[in-house]
């Protein structure tokens, strides 16, 4: 017979009685580990030291008793069988002990029941432990489920069959200020729709496969949501529903942003295509307005051009006869004329005092609501304004204004080209009428022809790039190519990988071209709104240098950066773009193994006199065209490359102007002698105009070029 192990704590003052108990248990087949204690302190130490199976206690001892031992056992928190074995104990005392927690009691004179009682109590103790463990697991599982339920990012609501809410997770506090109290016990339609009755059974549709319902909006919440409902059985025959409400506002915003970007790119492409007409400026303006109505959902539009100081309407679409008549010709003293001359966009939610009085009445009569007017200008010269409007309650955002300004800038360039062409025709007629002036004017006509040829070439290059490049959905190509290259895991041959990498790199270059086009359009049409803050330009130069580490290392070009670490009030984003364009040009036109230097220093106002002869070539009004300050910061980018011919240094800041042979054009950013769109230096000049500073170029010591940026410091 295999002995069963048993750990017994004996609360007994008699050594002989303890031995009797031990012998009886051993006769019952137990292998004992036991300890005898006879005081409360001794019992506490024993309970802490060993994990006992059972406690057997005498009822009464000189310094301790069974009730005290029960108290000590309860204080320890252990659930052990407690059996009283006493020589004499009354019925009332035994009952009291049992009520205090004793498992059973025996008389010392009759120990035959000891082993059965111990076995029974051990079984019951094991059952209690198993029950406790089960209850603990249930409680822990419930707590874990509650934590998971509350941690879900979606709003989960449980209702009965009538739609009354009985349970919800913790996300309710993110959507309803009152939390659980504002939701529990209420009808689900009431808390989401309020007094308004929902169209369709949003919270009653039973999804057989759990698929989501269509996107919805709730009157009592902001944003967009997707609702999925599932049937559930609660108790007995009671039925209820689980509703999962997912907040999809961010997803909808991303989708709307993509639709807006696609619409803008498509609009720019369509406009660029329309601007290729050669049937006269009136035809181009009319076609442009028609395109804007289709692409941007406009209801009214018109274009005014300056004739002297008077603003005259040259094209319109959708206007009432009364409004068109009132706006046909605006003298200089009209508020609308003064606003147009400022060269800044202006807009409103309804016709107001800025309209001429008769025009205001006509606008109200034809239902004009939101409207926006943007300038047609090249550089700082305002040629006119373009006005668009709608009947609906739509408001024009900053993004809408920027897009309209970009379109207006392109139109201004085309109008300017037509104006130059008309002037050329007039000059030819004068030459035809007066042969006597032929010799005197021949050289002038030749220069004008060269100038017109350059402008036409620039215009054709711009229109060709825009019409060829903008028609491709850039964002979709980049995203798809990048996914296939980096994340799809699709096996590809080296040739396939190389082709796809070329597609991705080409798309990156195309995006840069589009960004340059939009930057120069913004600068010329609206002017960059510089948000000036103190910045360390040497630090900015180092950050820009980090962008060109790879091409610099491939071509072994050394770049050194050093100078005054003074803080300069600039728009850091625009200045970063300017420095990046200059450093990129320096790398392009510097031979492999060459050197590029970026330096900066503070100049006093008196030093401007030394710069005047050079700067007058680039700014005829210098120094009146820059902000007056006590000191200035001069940032210079120098290289020892191929340099720039003297007769082209002033013109390189013109839009689309490029030095040298167009055959050097390359899709690479930094390859030697590669050429871009001809917008970079024009963007730099526009940025310096916004900072009330100047930019110019000189021959560097030892050959190459030095580009200088002069920023005002203290006023």
UniProtKB/TrEMBL annotation:
Location of the Response regulatory domain: 7-123
Keyword Chloroplast attached: no
Annotated keywords: ATP-binding, Coiled coil, Kinase, Nucleotide-binding, Phosphoprotein, Transferase, Two-component regulatory system
Enzyme class: transferase
Documented EC number(s): 2.7.13.3
Residue ranges of domain Histidine kinase in the record: 465-715
One GO MF term attached to the UniProt entry: ATP binding
Coiled coil: 421-448
KW Endoplasmic reticulum (keyword) present: no
Pfam families hit by this protein: GAF_2, HATPase_c, HisKA, PAS_9, Response_reg
Modified positions (4-aspartylphosphate) in chain numbering: 58
CDD domains noted in UniProt: HATPase, HisKA, PAS
Reaction(s) the record says it catalyses: ATP + protein L-histidine = ADP + protein N-phospho-L-histidine
Name the record gives this protein: histidine kinase
Native organism: Geomonas paludis
């Amino acid at each position: 017979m295999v002995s069963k192990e048993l750990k017994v704590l004996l609360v007994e003052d008699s050594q002989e009685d303890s031995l009797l108990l031990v012998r009886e248990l051993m006769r019952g087949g137990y292998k004992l580990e036991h300890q005898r204690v006879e005081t409360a302190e001794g019992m506490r130490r024993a309970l802490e030291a060993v994990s006992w199976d059972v406690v057997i206690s005498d009822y009464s001892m000189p310094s301790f008793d069974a009730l005290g031992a029960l108290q000590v056992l309860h204080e320890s928190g252990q659930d052990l069988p407690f059996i009283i074995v006493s020589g004499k104990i009354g019925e009332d005392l035994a009952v009291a002990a049992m009520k205090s927690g004793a498992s059973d009691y025996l008389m010392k004179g009759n120990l035959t029941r000891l082993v059965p009682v111990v076995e029974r109590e051990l079984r019951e103790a094991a059952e209690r432990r198993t029950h406790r463990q089960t209850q603990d697991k249930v409680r822990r599982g419930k707590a874990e489920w509650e934590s998971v339920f509350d941690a879900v990012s979606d709003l989960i609501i449980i209702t009965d069959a009538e739609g009354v809410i009985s349970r919800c997770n913790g996300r309710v506090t993110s959507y309803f200020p009152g939390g659980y109290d504002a939701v529990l016990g209420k009808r689900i339609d009431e808390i989401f729709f309020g007094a308004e009755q929902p169209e369709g059974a949003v919270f009653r549709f039973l999804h057989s496969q759990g698929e989501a319902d269509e996107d919805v909006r709730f009157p009592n919440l902001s944003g967009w949501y997707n609702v999925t409902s599932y049937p559930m059985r609660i108790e007995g025959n009671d039925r209820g529903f689980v509703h999962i409400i997912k907040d999809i506002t961010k997803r909808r915003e991303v989708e709307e942003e993509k639709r807006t970007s696609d619409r803008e790119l498509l609009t720019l492409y369509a406009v660029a295509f329309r601007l290729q007409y050669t049937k006269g400026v009136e035809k181009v303006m009319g076609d442009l307005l028609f395109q804007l109505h289709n692409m941007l959902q406009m209801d009214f539009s018109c274009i005014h051009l300056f004739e002297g100081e008077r603003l005259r309407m040259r094209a319109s679409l959708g206007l009432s006869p009364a409004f068109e008549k009132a706006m046909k010709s605006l003298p200089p003293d009209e508020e609308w004329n003064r606003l147009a001359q400022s060269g800044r966009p202006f807009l409103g939610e309804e016709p107001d005092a800025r309209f001429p009085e008769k025009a205001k009445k006509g606008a109200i009569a034809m239902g004009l609501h939101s409207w926006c007017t943007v300038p047609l200008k090249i550089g700082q010269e305002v040629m006119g304004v373009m006005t668009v409007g709608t009947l609906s309650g739509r408001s024009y955002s900053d993004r809408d204004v920027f897009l309209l300004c970009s379109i207006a800038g392109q139109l201004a360039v085309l109008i300017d080209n037509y104006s130059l062409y008309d002037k050329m025709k007039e000059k030819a007629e004068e030459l035809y009428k007066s042969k006597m002036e032929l010799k005197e004017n021949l050289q002038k006509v030749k220069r004008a022809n060269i100038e017109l040829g350059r402008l036409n070439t620039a215009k054709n290059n711009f229109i060709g790039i825009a019409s060829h490049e903008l028609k491709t959905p850039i964002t979709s190509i980049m995203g798809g190519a990048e996914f296939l290259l980096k994340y799809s895991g699709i096996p590809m041959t080296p040739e396939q990988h190389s082709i796809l990498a070329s597609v991705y790199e080409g798309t990156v270059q195309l995006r840069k071209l589009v960004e340059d086009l939009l930057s120069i359009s913004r600068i010329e049409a609206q002017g960059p709104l510089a948000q000036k803050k103190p910045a360390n330009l040497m630090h900015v130069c180092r950050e820009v240098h980090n962008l060109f580490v790879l091409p610099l290392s491939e071509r072994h070009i050394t770049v050194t950066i050093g100078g005054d670490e003074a803080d300069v009030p600039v728009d850091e984003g625009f200045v970063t773009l300017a420095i990046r364009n200059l450093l990129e040009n320096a790398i392009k036109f510097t031979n492999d193994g060459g050197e590029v230097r970026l330096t900066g220093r503070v100049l006093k106002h008196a030093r401007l006199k030394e710069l005047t002869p050079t700067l007058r070539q680039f700014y005829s009004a210098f120094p009146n065209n820059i902000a007056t300050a006590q000191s200035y910061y001069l940032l210079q980018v120098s290289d020892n490359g191929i340099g720039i011919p003297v007769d082209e240094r002033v013109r390189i800041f013109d839009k689309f102007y490029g030095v040298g042979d167009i055959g050097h054009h390359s899709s690479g950013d930094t390859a030697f002698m590669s050429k871009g769109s001809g917008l970079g230096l024009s963007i730099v000049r526009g940025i310096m105009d916004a900072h009330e500073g100047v930019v110019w170029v000189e021959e560097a010591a030892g050959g190459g070029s030095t580009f200088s940026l002069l920023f005002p410091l203290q006023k």
